[in-house]
Design goal:
Largest sheet: 7 strands, mixed
Structural class: alpha/beta
Number of strands: 28
Number of helices: 6
Shape: elongated
Amino acid sequence: MRNFISYDESINILNNLNISKITTEKLFITNAVGKVIANDVIANHNNPEFLTSAMDGYAIKFKDIKNENIKIIGKNPAGSVVETQITMGTCIKTFTGSLMPKGSDTLVPIENVEVTLNKIKIIKEVPFGFAVRNIGEDYKKDEVLIKKGTVIGFAEIGVLASLNISQIEVIINPTIAIASTGSEILDLGEIQTNDSQIRSSNHLTLEALFKSNGANTIQMGVVKDDMDSITKLIETALLTSDIVVTTGGVSVGDYDFVQDVIKDKLKAEVLFHGVNLKPGMHILLALKDNKIIVALPGFAYSSTVCAMLYVLPLIYKFRNSNEKLPLVKARINQDFSRFQAKTIFTACNVEYKNGEYQINFDGKKSGTSAILTNMLESPALLIQKENSENIKAGDLVDILLLNNLK
Protein backbone atom coordinates (compact mmCIF):
# COMPACT_ATOMS: atom_id res chain seq x y z
CA MET A 1 0.00 0.00 0.00
CA ARG A 2 1.36 3.39 -1.04
CA ASN A 3 0.27 6.76 0.24
CA PHE A 4 -0.75 9.57 -2.11
CA ILE A 5 -0.85 7.76 -5.37
CA SER A 6 -2.07 9.50 -8.52
CA TYR A 7 -5.75 9.66 -9.32
CA ASP A 8 -5.25 7.45 -12.39
CA GLU A 9 -3.44 4.85 -10.25
CA SER A 10 -6.28 4.83 -7.73
CA ILE A 11 -8.89 4.32 -10.44
CA ASN A 12 -6.80 1.51 -11.92
CA ILE A 13 -6.79 -0.23 -8.52
CA LEU A 14 -10.55 0.22 -8.29
CA ASN A 15 -11.12 -1.15 -11.78
CA ASN A 16 -9.00 -4.23 -11.06
CA LEU A 17 -11.00 -5.25 -7.99
CA ASN A 18 -12.48 -8.70 -8.45
CA ILE A 19 -16.18 -8.71 -7.61
CA SER A 20 -17.09 -12.38 -7.27
CA LYS A 21 -20.57 -12.05 -5.78
CA ILE A 22 -22.87 -11.63 -8.77
CA THR A 23 -26.29 -13.03 -7.83
CA THR A 24 -29.50 -12.93 -9.82
CA GLU A 25 -33.26 -13.15 -9.41
CA LYS A 26 -36.25 -13.41 -11.73
CA LEU A 27 -38.74 -10.56 -11.79
CA PHE A 28 -41.88 -9.67 -13.69
CA ILE A 29 -40.70 -7.30 -16.39
CA THR A 30 -42.25 -4.08 -15.07
CA ASN A 31 -40.74 -4.80 -11.63
CA ALA A 32 -37.33 -5.00 -13.30
CA VAL A 33 -37.15 -1.33 -14.34
CA GLY A 34 -33.79 0.09 -13.23
CA LYS A 35 -32.31 -3.38 -12.75
CA VAL A 36 -29.51 -4.84 -14.86
CA ILE A 37 -30.37 -7.66 -17.23
CA ALA A 38 -28.29 -10.79 -16.56
CA ASN A 39 -28.31 -12.43 -20.00
CA ASP A 40 -28.58 -11.46 -23.65
CA VAL A 41 -32.15 -11.30 -24.96
CA ILE A 42 -32.37 -12.89 -28.40
CA ALA A 43 -35.31 -12.58 -30.79
CA ASN A 44 -37.15 -15.84 -31.38
CA HIS A 45 -39.05 -14.51 -34.40
CA ASN A 46 -39.06 -11.76 -37.01
CA ASN A 47 -40.99 -8.59 -36.25
CA PRO A 48 -43.08 -8.10 -38.23
CA GLU A 49 -43.32 -11.69 -39.45
CA PHE A 50 -45.20 -10.63 -42.58
CA LEU A 51 -45.46 -7.55 -44.79
CA THR A 52 -47.61 -5.14 -42.79
CA SER A 53 -49.37 -1.85 -43.46
CA ALA A 54 -47.93 1.23 -41.74
CA MET A 55 -50.88 3.51 -42.60
CA ASP A 56 -54.55 3.54 -43.56
CA GLY A 57 -54.85 3.35 -47.33
CA TYR A 58 -55.29 1.14 -50.37
CA ALA A 59 -53.03 -1.84 -51.09
CA ILE A 60 -52.11 -2.04 -54.76
CA LYS A 61 -49.57 -3.42 -57.18
CA PHE A 62 -47.11 -0.60 -57.86
CA LYS A 63 -47.52 -1.20 -61.59
CA ASP A 64 -51.01 0.32 -61.15
CA ILE A 65 -49.66 3.62 -59.70
CA LYS A 66 -50.73 5.57 -62.82
CA ASN A 67 -53.97 3.69 -63.28
CA GLU A 68 -56.93 6.07 -62.81
CA ASN A 69 -59.50 3.30 -62.49
CA ILE A 70 -58.60 0.74 -59.80
CA LYS A 71 -61.40 -1.44 -58.47
CA ILE A 72 -61.89 -1.83 -54.69
CA ILE A 73 -62.45 -5.55 -54.06
CA GLY A 74 -62.51 -5.64 -50.27
CA LYS A 75 -61.55 -4.30 -46.83
CA ASN A 76 -58.68 -5.45 -44.66
CA PRO A 77 -59.10 -4.44 -40.97
CA ALA A 78 -56.28 -5.02 -38.51
CA GLY A 79 -56.37 -8.42 -36.85
CA SER A 80 -57.94 -10.23 -39.79
CA VAL A 81 -56.44 -12.21 -42.65
CA VAL A 82 -57.82 -11.43 -46.10
CA GLU A 83 -57.55 -14.32 -48.53
CA THR A 84 -58.49 -12.24 -51.58
CA GLN A 85 -55.46 -11.64 -53.77
CA ILE A 86 -54.56 -8.36 -55.47
CA THR A 87 -54.31 -8.51 -59.24
CA MET A 88 -53.70 -5.78 -61.80
CA GLY A 89 -56.43 -3.16 -61.65
CA THR A 90 -57.63 -4.08 -58.15
CA CYS A 91 -57.02 -2.81 -54.63
CA ILE A 92 -58.10 -3.55 -51.06
CA LYS A 93 -58.75 -0.90 -48.43
CA THR A 94 -56.17 -1.72 -45.75
CA PHE A 95 -55.76 -0.30 -42.28
CA THR A 96 -52.73 0.43 -40.06
CA GLY A 97 -51.28 -2.78 -38.65
CA SER A 98 -53.04 -5.05 -41.13
CA LEU A 99 -51.18 -7.69 -43.11
CA MET A 100 -50.64 -6.57 -46.69
CA PRO A 101 -52.93 -8.57 -48.98
CA LYS A 102 -51.32 -11.19 -51.16
CA GLY A 103 -50.15 -9.77 -54.48
CA SER A 104 -49.82 -6.18 -53.21
CA ASP A 105 -46.54 -4.36 -52.76
CA THR A 106 -47.43 -0.71 -52.11
CA LEU A 107 -49.90 1.23 -49.93
CA VAL A 108 -51.46 4.46 -51.19
CA PRO A 109 -52.67 6.62 -48.27
CA ILE A 110 -56.37 7.43 -48.08
CA GLU A 111 -55.68 11.13 -48.58
CA ASN A 112 -53.88 10.40 -51.88
CA VAL A 113 -56.92 8.99 -53.65
CA GLU A 114 -60.37 9.97 -54.89
CA VAL A 115 -63.08 7.32 -54.38
CA THR A 116 -65.99 7.00 -56.81
CA LEU A 117 -68.42 4.21 -56.03
CA ASN A 118 -66.18 1.10 -55.86
CA LYS A 119 -63.15 2.53 -57.61
CA ILE A 120 -60.20 4.76 -56.72
CA LYS A 121 -58.17 7.26 -58.70
CA ILE A 122 -54.68 8.02 -57.40
CA ILE A 123 -54.28 11.80 -57.28
CA LYS A 124 -50.85 11.79 -55.60
CA GLU A 125 -48.36 9.10 -56.45
CA VAL A 126 -46.12 7.31 -53.91
CA PRO A 127 -42.89 5.35 -54.46
CA PHE A 128 -42.70 1.56 -54.67
CA GLY A 129 -43.18 -0.14 -51.29
CA PHE A 130 -44.58 2.99 -49.64
CA ALA A 131 -45.98 2.51 -46.10
CA VAL A 132 -45.19 -1.21 -46.11
CA ARG A 133 -43.33 -2.59 -43.11
CA ASN A 134 -40.89 -5.23 -44.33
CA ILE A 135 -40.44 -8.59 -42.64
CA GLY A 136 -38.00 -8.14 -39.76
CA GLU A 137 -38.09 -4.33 -39.99
CA ASP A 138 -38.04 -4.02 -36.17
CA TYR A 139 -35.91 -7.08 -35.48
CA LYS A 140 -34.94 -10.37 -37.08
CA LYS A 141 -34.98 -13.87 -35.63
CA ASP A 142 -31.78 -14.71 -33.66
CA GLU A 143 -30.78 -11.04 -33.40
CA VAL A 144 -29.41 -9.96 -29.99
CA LEU A 145 -31.86 -7.25 -28.99
CA ILE A 146 -30.81 -6.45 -25.42
CA LYS A 147 -27.24 -7.11 -24.29
CA LYS A 148 -26.52 -8.41 -20.82
CA GLY A 149 -25.40 -5.58 -18.57
CA THR A 150 -28.09 -3.24 -19.90
CA VAL A 151 -30.09 -1.22 -17.38
CA ILE A 152 -33.77 -1.96 -18.04
CA GLY A 153 -35.88 1.02 -19.02
CA PHE A 154 -39.17 1.61 -20.82
CA ALA A 155 -37.80 0.62 -24.25
CA GLU A 156 -36.45 -2.69 -22.93
CA ILE A 157 -39.84 -3.41 -21.32
CA GLY A 158 -41.54 -2.84 -24.66
CA VAL A 159 -39.17 -5.17 -26.50
CA LEU A 160 -39.50 -7.87 -23.83
CA ALA A 161 -43.28 -7.66 -24.04
CA SER A 162 -43.16 -7.93 -27.84
CA LEU A 163 -41.18 -11.16 -27.38
CA ASN A 164 -43.85 -12.47 -24.96
CA ILE A 165 -41.31 -12.51 -22.12
CA SER A 166 -43.07 -11.91 -18.82
CA GLN A 167 -40.19 -12.59 -16.42
CA ILE A 168 -36.55 -11.69 -16.79
CA GLU A 169 -33.40 -12.61 -14.89
CA VAL A 170 -31.72 -9.57 -13.38
CA ILE A 171 -28.67 -8.96 -11.21
CA ILE A 172 -29.35 -8.25 -7.55
CA ASN A 173 -28.12 -4.76 -6.71
CA PRO A 174 -25.32 -4.27 -4.17
CA THR A 175 -26.07 -3.15 -0.63
CA ILE A 176 -24.18 -0.16 0.75
CA ALA A 177 -24.05 0.78 4.42
CA ILE A 178 -23.51 4.51 4.99
CA ALA A 179 -22.41 6.42 8.10
CA SER A 180 -21.02 9.83 8.99
CA THR A 181 -18.49 10.21 11.82
CA GLY A 182 -17.72 13.22 13.95
CA SER A 183 -18.47 14.44 17.47
CA GLU A 184 -19.27 17.87 16.05
CA ILE A 185 -22.04 16.73 13.70
CA LEU A 186 -25.74 16.40 14.41
CA ASP A 187 -28.24 14.11 12.70
CA LEU A 188 -31.65 15.33 11.58
CA GLY A 189 -33.77 16.32 14.56
CA GLU A 190 -30.93 16.50 17.08
CA ILE A 191 -30.82 19.68 19.16
CA GLN A 192 -27.76 21.91 18.87
CA THR A 193 -26.20 22.46 22.31
CA ASN A 194 -23.16 24.53 21.35
CA ASP A 195 -21.97 26.73 18.49
CA SER A 196 -19.34 24.25 17.27
CA GLN A 197 -21.92 21.67 16.24
CA ILE A 198 -22.96 21.40 12.60
CA ARG A 199 -25.75 19.55 10.84
CA SER A 200 -24.66 16.41 8.99
CA SER A 201 -25.84 16.05 5.41
CA ASN A 202 -23.25 13.61 4.12
CA HIS A 203 -24.91 10.34 5.06
CA LEU A 204 -28.23 11.43 3.54
CA THR A 205 -26.67 12.96 0.41
CA LEU A 206 -24.79 9.73 -0.25
CA GLU A 207 -27.80 7.55 0.46
CA ALA A 208 -29.75 9.47 -2.21
CA LEU A 209 -26.84 9.29 -4.67
CA PHE A 210 -26.35 5.55 -4.23
CA LYS A 211 -30.06 4.70 -4.33
CA SER A 212 -30.60 6.66 -7.53
CA ASN A 213 -27.69 4.82 -9.13
CA GLY A 214 -28.98 1.34 -8.43
CA ALA A 215 -27.78 0.37 -4.95
CA ASN A 216 -29.72 -0.84 -1.95
CA THR A 217 -28.75 1.19 1.11
CA ILE A 218 -28.54 0.75 4.86
CA GLN A 219 -28.52 4.05 6.70
CA MET A 220 -26.26 3.80 9.79
CA GLY A 221 -26.61 7.49 10.68
CA VAL A 222 -24.09 9.51 12.70
CA VAL A 223 -21.46 8.15 15.08
CA LYS A 224 -19.23 10.14 17.44
CA ASP A 225 -15.42 10.24 17.27
CA ASP A 226 -14.93 7.25 19.51
CA MET A 227 -12.74 4.26 18.60
CA ASP A 228 -15.06 1.60 20.03
CA SER A 229 -18.22 3.11 18.58
CA ILE A 230 -16.70 3.40 15.10
CA THR A 231 -15.34 -0.16 15.31
CA LYS A 232 -18.73 -1.58 16.29
CA LEU A 233 -20.47 0.42 13.56
CA ILE A 234 -18.18 -0.78 10.77
CA GLU A 235 -18.22 -4.39 12.01
CA THR A 236 -22.03 -4.34 12.03
CA ALA A 237 -22.13 -2.73 8.59
CA LEU A 238 -19.80 -5.38 7.15
CA LEU A 239 -22.20 -8.14 8.22
CA THR A 240 -25.11 -6.75 6.24
CA SER A 241 -23.62 -5.01 3.20
CA ASP A 242 -21.31 -5.41 0.24
CA ILE A 243 -19.77 -1.94 0.57
CA VAL A 244 -19.33 0.23 3.67
CA VAL A 245 -19.01 3.97 3.08
CA THR A 246 -18.05 6.37 5.87
CA THR A 247 -17.42 10.10 5.85
CA GLY A 248 -14.91 11.87 8.11
CA GLY A 249 -12.07 10.59 10.24
CA VAL A 250 -9.54 9.77 7.51
CA SER A 251 -7.20 12.77 7.78
CA VAL A 252 -4.24 13.20 10.16
CA GLY A 253 -5.95 14.85 13.14
CA ASP A 254 -5.91 13.56 16.71
CA TYR A 255 -9.56 12.50 16.46
CA ASP A 256 -9.51 10.98 12.99
CA PHE A 257 -10.24 7.45 14.20
CA VAL A 258 -11.79 5.87 11.12
CA GLN A 259 -8.42 5.17 9.52
CA ASP A 260 -7.13 3.67 12.77
CA VAL A 261 -10.15 1.41 13.10
CA ILE A 262 -9.80 0.16 9.52
CA LYS A 263 -6.07 -0.42 9.75
CA ASP A 264 -5.50 -1.48 13.37
CA LYS A 265 -8.78 -2.75 14.80
CA LEU A 266 -10.22 -4.47 11.74
CA LYS A 267 -6.87 -5.40 10.20
CA ALA A 268 -8.34 -4.65 6.79
CA GLU A 269 -6.23 -4.74 3.64
CA VAL A 270 -5.72 -1.09 2.71
CA LEU A 271 -5.39 -0.70 -1.04
CA PHE A 272 -4.63 2.99 -0.81
CA HIS A 273 -4.92 5.84 1.66
CA GLY A 274 -4.34 9.19 0.04
CA VAL A 275 -4.72 10.24 -3.57
CA ASN A 276 -3.18 13.24 -5.31
CA LEU A 277 -6.67 14.61 -5.76
CA LYS A 278 -8.69 17.74 -4.99
CA PRO A 279 -11.08 17.48 -3.28
CA GLY A 280 -10.66 14.33 -1.20
CA MET A 281 -6.95 13.68 -0.91
CA HIS A 282 -7.29 11.51 2.24
CA ILE A 283 -9.70 8.99 0.72
CA LEU A 284 -9.11 5.38 1.85
CA LEU A 285 -10.05 2.13 0.10
CA ALA A 286 -9.77 -1.20 1.91
CA LEU A 287 -10.91 -4.83 1.79
CA LYS A 288 -12.19 -6.86 4.73
CA ASP A 289 -13.59 -10.40 4.35
CA ASN A 290 -14.33 -9.81 0.67
CA LYS A 291 -16.25 -6.66 1.54
CA ILE A 292 -15.17 -3.17 0.42
CA ILE A 293 -14.68 -0.20 2.74
CA VAL A 294 -14.55 3.30 1.29
CA ALA A 295 -13.67 5.97 3.85
CA LEU A 296 -14.39 9.43 2.46
CA PRO A 297 -13.44 12.89 3.74
CA GLY A 298 -15.85 14.74 6.01
CA PHE A 299 -16.44 17.94 4.05
CA ALA A 300 -19.72 17.76 2.13
CA TYR A 301 -18.39 18.67 -1.33
CA SER A 302 -15.35 16.39 -0.91
CA SER A 303 -17.34 13.38 0.22
CA THR A 304 -19.90 13.78 -2.55
CA VAL A 305 -17.34 14.20 -5.33
CA CYS A 306 -15.31 11.22 -4.09
CA ALA A 307 -18.46 9.11 -3.78
CA MET A 308 -19.20 9.84 -7.44
CA LEU A 309 -15.67 9.02 -8.54
CA TYR A 310 -15.12 5.88 -6.47
CA VAL A 311 -18.39 4.42 -5.15
CA LEU A 312 -20.54 4.76 -8.26
CA PRO A 313 -18.06 2.71 -10.35
CA LEU A 314 -18.17 0.06 -7.59
CA ILE A 315 -21.97 -0.04 -7.87
CA TYR A 316 -21.62 -0.53 -11.62
CA LYS A 317 -19.14 -3.38 -11.03
CA PHE A 318 -21.45 -5.13 -8.56
CA ARG A 319 -24.35 -4.74 -10.99
CA ASN A 320 -22.10 -6.14 -13.77
CA SER A 321 -23.55 -3.39 -15.91
CA ASN A 322 -22.47 -1.35 -18.90
CA GLU A 323 -22.89 1.89 -16.94
CA LYS A 324 -20.10 4.49 -16.91
CA LEU A 325 -19.62 7.91 -15.41
CA PRO A 326 -20.91 10.52 -17.91
CA LEU A 327 -17.64 12.14 -19.02
CA VAL A 328 -17.91 14.49 -22.01
CA LYS A 329 -16.05 17.33 -23.73
CA ALA A 330 -17.20 20.91 -23.20
CA ARG A 331 -16.23 24.41 -24.33
CA ILE A 332 -15.03 26.68 -21.49
CA ASN A 333 -15.80 30.41 -21.53
CA GLN A 334 -12.79 31.73 -19.57
CA ASP A 335 -9.14 31.15 -18.80
CA PHE A 336 -8.64 28.67 -15.96
CA SER A 337 -5.21 28.01 -14.45
CA ARG A 338 -4.04 24.77 -12.89
CA PHE A 339 -3.05 26.02 -9.45
CA GLN A 340 -1.94 22.71 -7.91
CA ALA A 341 -0.12 19.63 -9.19
CA LYS A 342 -3.12 17.41 -8.52
CA THR A 343 -6.09 16.03 -10.40
CA ILE A 344 -8.68 18.69 -9.61
CA PHE A 345 -12.47 18.55 -9.88
CA THR A 346 -14.06 22.01 -9.90
CA ALA A 347 -17.79 22.71 -9.83
CA CYS A 348 -19.15 24.61 -12.84
CA ASN A 349 -22.38 25.24 -14.73
CA VAL A 350 -23.09 23.37 -17.96
CA GLU A 351 -25.53 23.87 -20.81
CA TYR A 352 -25.90 22.27 -24.22
CA LYS A 353 -25.81 25.02 -26.81
CA ASN A 354 -25.01 25.25 -30.52
CA GLY A 355 -24.34 21.52 -30.74
CA GLU A 356 -21.88 21.28 -27.85
CA TYR A 357 -21.62 21.39 -24.08
CA GLN A 358 -20.50 24.76 -22.72
CA ILE A 359 -19.40 25.55 -19.17
CA ASN A 360 -19.08 28.67 -17.04
CA PHE A 361 -18.60 29.49 -13.36
CA ASP A 362 -21.36 32.06 -12.90
CA GLY A 363 -22.55 32.06 -9.29
CA LYS A 364 -20.18 29.31 -8.20
CA LYS A 365 -18.61 30.02 -4.82
CA SER A 366 -14.92 29.61 -4.05
CA GLY A 367 -13.57 28.48 -0.72
CA THR A 368 -13.23 25.16 1.09
CA SER A 369 -14.42 21.68 0.13
CA ALA A 370 -17.55 22.14 2.25
CA ILE A 371 -19.60 24.09 -0.31
CA LEU A 372 -22.22 21.54 -1.38
CA THR A 373 -24.50 24.24 -2.86
CA ASN A 374 -22.12 24.44 -5.84
CA MET A 375 -23.79 21.23 -7.03
CA LEU A 376 -27.24 22.81 -7.41
CA GLU A 377 -29.00 23.77 -10.67
CA SER A 378 -27.13 22.53 -13.81
CA PRO A 379 -23.81 21.37 -12.39
CA ALA A 380 -20.78 19.63 -13.79
CA LEU A 381 -17.23 19.05 -12.64
CA LEU A 382 -14.34 20.46 -14.65
CA ILE A 383 -11.52 17.88 -14.65
CA GLN A 384 -7.89 18.99 -14.66
CA LYS A 385 -5.34 16.18 -14.59
CA GLU A 386 -2.22 16.71 -12.48
CA ASN A 387 0.00 16.99 -15.55
CA SER A 388 -2.36 19.21 -17.57
CA GLU A 389 -1.68 22.68 -18.93
CA ASN A 390 -3.44 25.91 -18.02
CA ILE A 391 -6.80 26.21 -19.76
CA LYS A 392 -7.60 29.04 -22.17
CA ALA A 393 -11.01 30.49 -22.93
CA GLY A 394 -12.55 28.56 -25.84
CA ASP A 395 -10.65 25.33 -25.11
CA LEU A 396 -12.39 21.98 -25.12
CA VAL A 397 -12.13 20.48 -21.63
CA ASP A 398 -13.19 17.28 -19.87
CA ILE A 399 -16.22 17.47 -17.58
CA LEU A 400 -18.34 15.09 -15.53
CA LEU A 401 -22.09 15.74 -15.94
CA LEU A 402 -23.65 15.64 -12.48
CA ASN A 403 -27.34 15.76 -13.35
CA ASN A 404 -26.84 12.63 -15.46
CA LEU A 405 -25.94 10.82 -12.23
CA LYS A 406 -29.59 11.28 -11.15
